[in-house]
Amino acid sequence: MKTALDRLFQHLRWADDQLLRAAEAAGDYPPAALRLLGHILGAERVWLLRIRGQDPGAAPVWPQLSVQECRDLSGQNRQGYLERLAATPPEGFEEVIAYRDTKGVEHRTRLGDILLHVALHGAHHRGQIAAILRGAGMEPGGTDYIRFCRSGLLGGQQG
Known about the structure:
globular, 5 helices, two-stranded antiparallel ribbon, mainly alpha, Four Helix Bundle (Hemerythrin (Met), subunit A)
């Protein structure tokens, strides 16, 4: 699981960065796309706080962020997940994390499952962002996992 999660989080960082670069380059980035980008990053932050055993109460799942604030939050998330993945031995992904959801309901979930959820969560919203950008006459670029693999950023593999 560790190797797969490492790969998925490399993709997550790359895909988030693709969206951030597009938002930074756009003169008129659609507000709905920025709201979804903020949500992707806000949710990543909430889950990071949960797995650290911290209360994410002050960290909104749907923050209203500028492009620069998205860039800053992305960097914080990136560092936090890199540290957690590096510090977790293969058997550590079985650890059960206790947390409360946004409605205050208590849950207990394996760390590996939480990390898999975080890695997959943004894919749906990235697709929504792509549709919004196309509707605005913009080219969204690709954030699919296979494009990441083909980019050569995953262990030098290209194809």
